[in-house]
Amino acid sequence: MKKSILLVIAVICLTACGKSGSTGLAFLDELGISKDSVQILGDTINVSTDSIMYHLNNDQAARLLGGIAPEWAVDSVEVTDLASLVAIKELATGCTLAFLWQESGDGGTMYICTYDSDGKYADGMEFVNWKMLNQGFMEDNSSAYFSEKEECGGRFTEDGFTIHRTLSGMKSDTEMTDFQPQWTIDKTYTYAVASDGKLQLKGVELKKQGNVSDKVLLRDEIRDFAKMPASDGSIIEKLNTLTMRKDVQGIEEEDRSYGELLWTVNSVYDRYPSQVLKWLCQHKDSNGLAPLMKKADGFGVLSRERIDADIEKIGGGDDANYLKELTKDWFPQKIDTNTEYEEGDVVEEGDMAGMAEVEYEGENDGM
Fold first, then answer.
1. Which residue, 31, 130, 263, 284, shows the most beta carbons closer than 10 Å to its own?
2. Could you give the percent of the chain with pLDDT greater than 70?
3. pTM
């Protein structure tokens, strides 16, 4: 009798596993993507951007990225500008984990996304510069040249996966030659994946070798916000806590960390516009986000039109009035180039047209 019961249980388990396995990647077929065109991962996350990958069209990118990437990153007629599906893994829960690469500058962004058992987008995060070599830049008014190299990998665990990331810094007194190792940052990010595909960042372990400067550590800390799951709404409070720190408020605008901070504030707003605006209303006297948002235009996300439209979605009332007053002098405008002005002319508000294009004069490090 016991053997019969065990046999029935075994059959049920095998059937369930078979269904999970057969449906887990079925959504790729629906999208017209052959499983043979991407890397199927085993126990390790040895995802290489030099390996075989599938370039996504607009519909495929919109389905797979699920909003984790900004609209401008997928709204293009050029297939080469879109993300590419690099690797995929069926998890024991029936969920699927996918790695999507988008090359940019000296590096690129690896979007790590999860999908439920029906293939519907569940969660995701970004590992900017999954693979990167930024060589020959200068900073801090130094006469030396610097180089940074970044590489990522990982492995699967019982309840999720870990990502191991190595960032190395080198220095040279002559341009592009004789770079000498200076420091290394090793970080391990541990994630859990729930049965519905939602991600949880359980912890980050930091190890460092050599003389890692405070500026490098701060810049890396800022970049870690992109590695928080999109479903984790606590990112707004955590980012504000960072912006209120003395070392962060003391960053000069010419510093590379300042550009990283603006980019992060921009990305968080792009992901949670209504939540950020409501948060600003609830923290009028204790927030460091508003001053940075005011300066974060020019990145293609924050603009006069975007802010106004998002405020309208909140509706009327005190919150809307406060936000309109708070943002009224945000985003500098430029003089209409079709109108000729002479020295001494007074430019009225009605003579202004468009939004000024603000470009951060920072180093191109693959962001």
1. 130
2. 77
3. 0.79
How far apart CA 48 and CA 130 sit, in angstroms, is: 9
- Quote the strand ranges of the chain, DSSP E: 39-40, 54-55, 84-90, 96-104, 107-115, 121-128, 131-137, 145-156, 160-172, 180-193, 199-210, 333-335, 352-355
Tokens 């802010």 sit on residue: 307
Query: Tokens 């057969």 identify what position?
Result: 22
Token output for 173: 């007194």
Largest distance between two CA atoms of the chain:
100
Q: Which of 156, 140, 142, 128 is nearest to 69 (CA)?
A: 128
Contact 280, 308 (CB under 8 A): no
Q: How far is CA 40 from the centre of its chain?
A: 24
Q: Which two tokens stand for residue 268?
A: 């968080």
* Alpha-carbon torsion angle 343, 348, 353, 355, nearest 10: 90
Per-residue pLDDT tens over the stretch 226-256: 999 999 999 999 999 999 999 999 898 888 8
Q: Which two tokens stand for residue 141?
A: 């008014």
Residue 321 tokens, joined: 């009035």
Q: How far apart are CA 178 and CA 367, in angstroms?
A: 26
- The continuous run of DSSP H or E covering 235 comes out as helix 235-243
Give the separation between CA 367 and CA 364, rounded to whole angstroms: 7
Task: Round to whole Å and give the CA distance between 155 and 199.
Answer: 16
